[in-house]
Structure formats: structure tokens, C-alpha cells
Amino acid sequence: MSTTVTGIISREKGAPVEMTDIVIPDPGPHDVIVTIQACGVCHTDLAYRDGDIADAYPFLLGHEAAGIVETVGDAVTHVEVGDFVVLNWRAVCGECRSCRKGEPKYCFNTHNASRRMTLTDGTELTPALGIGAFAEKTLVHEGQCTKVNPEVDPAAAGLLGCGIMAGLGAAVNTAEITRGESVAVFGLGGVGMAAVAGAKLAGATTIIAVDIDPQKLEWAKEFGATHVIDSSQLSGEGEDAEVVAQIRDITGGVGTDVAIDAVGIMTTWQQAFYSRDHAGRMVMVGVPNLTSHIDVPAIDFYGRGGSLRPAWYGDCLPERDFPLYVDLHLQDRFPLDKFVSERIELGDVEAAFDTMKSGDVLRSVVIL
């Protein structure tokens, strides 16, 4: 039999979100119903609300979630009722050309639930990133559930489901930072701050955090930044940007081994590109809008060497990475709990979007 729960939806582009009844069908053979304990408020949810990702309204928002497996389909083998899980949106298929090449992080056919959640009038919902966890319960594919140590705080663990893993993975997996290297991170939202923490975890000895918000620059020091740059009053573009000059001063005139753009606008992209040492690595983990274009002189691209790489979900493998970073957190080696700025109720999601825009939090987390 279907189950009716309370959830948060975006009914139309730009309109405030609504709290309403959600109908969850019985799970298909490989589906599971998860009782949600906590779900972070991510910028991606705001992008869904504002029509910057898709037009398949209404959306059931929320995706940075942790909870308990309540019901399983008759063919489920990956999890059992009662398991504590973090939800992920990259449940790899194991069969596509990317998976067969040994690159499952680029899977082209990731799994989602086989049945659709609906409103009480039968209107089908599009779950954000295939999850839809701003709800008391949600329906996902079994592969979207990653078991982790149940001793962890659900509010902290759920953040691995998207933003924190994106930034952490950009540093550790995509950039492959090693001990003794220098790193610059542009943009200190949750993703950028996770990249700073990831750089420290990987052993970088010079970690330069760049942002326009003095409060976030202070927070960055707590996450491992050795230097901070307030770019709000700095001028110049491209190679002539004052931010680039300051980074070169800090690194003895040569630039960093790694530069991470956690914003996704062309100003920060160019700053990251030009702040690298010769043959340095640049990673873009900030998501650009649909109209942005990369614009650098071809000779600069050619002459600098190195690598330029986007980071999808921090190039993570949830089954490998989520348990690892939960365990490191429980060992006091990765500060997952520091990303939880405030704990809110389900009805506070719209207000949390405003708080996010103001830059006063790293993550608001809905507690259910």
C-alpha cells in the first residue's frame, strides 16, 4: 500500500516552496523506502526551484540526506531494513561503457527509483537529483543508499550526499593533492570550504582561501587555510588580477600546484587558471550557468601546460568514499560536523534559501 508523508515541493519556477502531502508508492523490486532523519539545504535545491536545472515541475526538493531503511523491494540485496544510510545521486550501473572501462565515477546510466512519488491528486513529482529528501520518507533505488557507521550524527553524515563530497573530492580525487603541495581555493561556500578541508587532509602545506566575505575567510582558517585573501576590494582581470599577484607573492612568485574554482563564474575561473604554477592543475567544481563561456587566449592555454579538469560530484564513488569520511570524522580527522551551521524544521526551507543567499551559513540542515 502507498504511504502519505509531508514534504517540500517547488510547484513552479521561482515561486516559494510549499509543504504538502506526498504519496510514496510501494517500492519496485530494487527500490527502498528510507525514513529521513536529516537533509541539508543545498544550492542545487535553490537552482531547481528557480528553473536553473530543469523544467520538470513540480520538484520534490532535498538530496543531502541520511536516514534509516524502512522498506525494501523483493529483489533488494544491497541494504536491509534498519540500515543507517547516506543517500547518493550517483548509483552506478556497472554495465555502461564508462563502468566497463573502469571509470564508474563517470557512469552514464546511474540508477533511480523505478516508481514515481506523487501529489495526492496523482501529479507525478520529479525528485531533486533523483532523491527528493525534504520529506519524512522518500523512495530511491537500493544503489542510492550507502551504509555508514550509525554512530555519526545524521545531520553531518547527510552532507556527504552532495556539496561536501563535491568539494572534498575535488581536492582529493580530482586534483589529487599530495603532501607538501600548495593549493588555492576560490569561493568559500560549503563546497569551497570542503575543498580547503580536503586539501589539509591530503597534506597540502600552503592552502590559500579566496572569498569576498570576511566571515568566511575566518571560518576557512578553522578548516585548514594557511593564508586568506579578501578579494572584494581587489581589481584587475585574468593574469593581471591583483588576486593572482597576491597568490604568486605567497608562493614565492611561481603560483600554486593546484587551483580550485568553487564558484563557477568566469572571474574566478580565470583567477584560478592564472594563479597556477607552470604545469599546475586546475579543477572546476563550481557549477556554471547555462550561458557562461570559457574565455582565455589560446596561447595561454597552450603555454601553461598542466591540466584543467571539471569535478563531477568530486569524482567520488559513494560506496568507497562515504564510509571512509564518516570514519575519519568519528576519529576527529575530518571536521564534518563543522559544516552544520544551523538545524531547522521542514517548514523553514524557504527561509533557509534566504539565509544561504546572505552567506551567513555553510549549511542549514533540516531535522526530521
UniProtKB/TrEMBL annotation:
<dbReference type="InterPro" id="IPR013149">
    <property type="entry name" value="ADH-like_C"/>
</dbReference>
<keyword id="KW-0520">NAD</keyword>
<dbReference type="InterPro" id="IPR013154">
    <property type="entry name" value="ADH-like_N"/>
</dbReference>
<dbReference type="GO" id="GO:0050607">
    <property type="term" value="F:mycothiol-dependent formaldehyde dehydrogenase activity"/>
</dbReference>
<feature type="domain" description="Enoyl reductase (ER)">
    <location>
        <begin position="14"/>
        <end position="366"/>
    </location>
</feature>
<comment type="similarity">
    <text>Belongs to the zinc-containing alcohol dehydrogenase family.</text>
</comment>
<dbReference type="InterPro" id="IPR020843">
    <property type="entry name" value="ER"/>
</dbReference>
<dbReference type="Pfam" id="PF00107">
    <property type="entry name" value="ADH_zinc_N"/>
</dbReference>
<keyword id="KW-0862">Zinc</keyword>
<protein>
    <submittedName>
        <fullName>S-(Hydroxymethyl)mycothiol dehydrogenase</fullName>
        <ecNumber>1.1.1.306</ecNumber>
    </submittedName>
</protein>
<dbReference type="InterPro" id="IPR002328">
    <property type="entry name" value="ADH_Zn_CS"/>
</dbReference>
<dbReference type="InterPro" id="IPR011032">
    <property type="entry name" value="GroES-like_sf"/>
</dbReference>
<dbReference type="InterPro" id="IPR036291">
    <property type="entry name" value="NAD(P)-bd_dom_sf"/>
</dbReference>
<dbReference type="Pfam" id="PF08240">
    <property type="entry name" value="ADH_N"/>
</dbReference>
<keyword id="KW-0479">Metal-binding</keyword>
<keyword id="KW-0560">Oxidoreductase</keyword>
<dbReference type="InterPro" id="IPR017816">
    <property type="entry name" value="MycoS_dep_FDH"/>
</dbReference>
